[in-house]
Amino acid sequence: MMALIQRVTHARVEVEDRVAGAIGPGLLVLVCAQPTDTPAHAAKLVDKLLKLRIFSDDAGKMNRSVQNLDGAGTPGGLLIVSQFTLAADTSSGNRPSFIGAAPAAQGQALYEAVLAQARARHPLVAGGEFGAHMRVHLLNDGPVTIPLHIA
């Protein structure tokens, strides 16, 4: 699986002029399933999201995870949005190829697995709608943007 993680002050995703999901401080996670991905990859991605230490501690070091933003156990939000375009191949021509993305049914199942596992393990999880045209609004904090590849 591929993911692009952005540390945010707040973020929301809209579908057809309604808010499908929103968070305060936390992580906006754009997720793309690939053809060889399995539910085990989804679990590994969620584990990494919850443990990744990219929030500043009192000394200004990236030492805290989304599970403990302030050092007192306050969790941040996870806004998880499907984005098959992360698998774009632009090496040939000017139109991207998305052959590196999982087929729609597999991609949806894996996206839903990521959401379900995140919701089972973290109190503040929101998502978009797989396959929908979405508008994502965010205030990037830092900015901190980290690509992840889960093998």
UniProtKB/TrEMBL annotation:
This is D-aminoacyl-tRNA deacylase. It is an enzyme of class 3 (hydrolase). InterPro entries: Daa-tRNA_deacyls_DTD, DTD-like_sf. Its main location: cytoplasm. It is found in: Cytoplasm. GO terms for molecular function: D-tyrosyl-tRNA(Tyr) deacylase activity; Gly-tRNA(Ala) deacylase activity; Ser(Gly)-tRNA(Ala) hydrolase activity; tRNA binding. Belongs to the DTD family. The lineage of its organism: Bacteria, Pseudomonadati, Pseudomonadota, Betaproteobacteria, Neisseriales. Homodimer. A motif (Gly-cisPro motif, important for rejection of L-amino acids) lies at residues 142-143. Gene3D superfamilies: D-tyrosyl-tRNA(Tyr) deacylase. A Gly-cisPro motif from one monomer fits into the active site of the other monomer to allow specific chiral rejection of L-amino acids. Pfam families: Tyr_Deacylase (PF02580). One of its GO terms (cellular component) is cytoplasm. GO terms for biological process: D-amino acid catabolic process. An aminoacyl-tRNA editing enzyme that deacylates mischarged D-aminoacyl-tRNAs. Also deacylates mischarged glycyl-tRNA(Ala), protecting cells against glycine mischarging by AlaRS. Acts via tRNA-based rather than protein-based catalysis; rejects L-amino acids rather than detecting D-amino acids in the active site. By recycling D-aminoacyl-tRNA to D-amino acids and free tRNA molecules, this enzyme counteracts the toxicity associated with the formation of D-aminoacyl-tRNA entities in vivo and helps enforce protein L-homochirality. Its EC number is 3.1.1.96, 3.1.1.-. It comes from Vitreoscilla filiformis. It catalyses: a D-aminoacyl-tRNA + H2O = a tRNA + a D-alpha-amino acid + H(+); glycyl-tRNA(Ala) + H2O = tRNA(Ala) + glycine + H(+). The keyword Hydrolase applies. Keywords: Cytoplasm, Hydrolase, RNA-binding, tRNA-binding.
